[in-house]
Amino acid sequence: MSKEKVFPKDFLWGGAIAANQAEGAWNVDGKGASQADMTRGGIISGETDQQIDPNLYYASHEAIDFYHQYKEDVQMFSEMGFSLFRTSIAWSRIFPKGDEKEPNEKGLQFYDDLFDELLGKGIQPMITISHYEMPIHLVDEYGGWSNRQLIEFFSRFCEVIFKRYKDKVKYWLTFNEINNMHKIPLATGGVRIKNEEEPLQEIYQASHHMFVANSHAVRLCKEIIPDSMIGAMLSLSVLYPNSCRPEDVFETNTYRRRHLFYSDVMIRGEYPTYVDRIFKEHTISINMEEGDLELLKAHTCEYLAFSYYLSSTHKAGMPILTHTGGVRGIDNPYLPKSKWGWQIDPIGLRIVCNELTDRYNVPLFIVENGYGDVDSINEDGSIHDVDRTNFLKEHLVEIYNAIEDGCDVRGFAWWGPIDIVSAGTGEMKKRYGFIHVDKDNEGNGSLKRTKKDSFYEFQKIIESNGASL
Ligand code: BG6
Ligand 1 center to residue 20 CA distance, Å? Predict the structure, then answer.
């Protein structure tokens, strides 16, 4: 008989969403337009419209109307047994243009109410300060994180929210999937690359500004909320070498380092030596100010949170293509795929947990893992989403194994516990939820919430703290 998979007693169970994919109410109560609000077809479509066209459909404008319906949703999260809920604060709700001196009170009030609702049900909020959206004004007028002035605006934003929510929010994350600066710099950092032929100078310069801002955020957070934890968040789906050919192995490792570069700086507090070669070969020179490197060293992230969806394989010399799930390489013949071609690899998650523990030995949180699928609704309204449940269980078993391996995994947040807009494609059809939302790709639907079979399955797992797996 296999051993019961009981998780550590304080393990946090829950789900994760992002403001722009769920809240809607894009221009309500003083909110300004964010880059996500000006985008159609998903954040990786790579452009924003210059103006909102009222005849066109923008998925974030209503999304699932979490802004108005969060109480019902939080009630359902509580029924599932959540102890953790990750969401982001829409920067443009608090500072509509981003460069104002005074925050928007109504925006602040919304999050106060949301956090009260969560805490009242015993659910810890985990807050991503910047999740693929910034006020569009900062993108258009300042060039996003290419501009050092963003450090000042972001620090002001952080100070305001840390002071306001110091008694309510103890888990913070600075930038969602910051390592995606390489593949989606507009979504990740509000940066429109000018030199597409040789983008690395701009990417590393903007990343440096984000690192400095990250350290300021860590400093402020620990000063204002001493009993908080503030972490880095990366996209860390796995890339395997396509063969044991040394060239394939080496180049795959090189790409992995391109990602881990971000946590190397944010957790170890210094630029790793391997970037010297990249900087030399691409004639990159980072503009730094006096004191930057000392700041990075003094204020580092205490934990590493990451998203994990899939794995892929890489052959030396092939271009690196990507989607929101991670790197898109050659299919692995040993693994099945989702309808969006994402290869399902639970053991890959155990590999990543071990890799990160060996490298950093800090607490880990899996803050995104999930299965996007097309759901079929039966006549009686039921949704038998067996594949989603299997995906969930298989990944949780590997998290359990990673904990047994010695990894300090503190929590798990399923991506999109309620159906939300897909970041990659802007669709509603790609559903991750345990809770179905009646809305289609064109924006039609009543927004009614319905529990899928996976809702009850996750409930059982949480109730037994993993033992039912
Ligand atoms: C992550 C993002 O990259 O992947 C989320 O942090 C996103 O915002 C998730 O939604 C899943 O991607 P998609 O494209 O299926 O929504």
Answer: 11
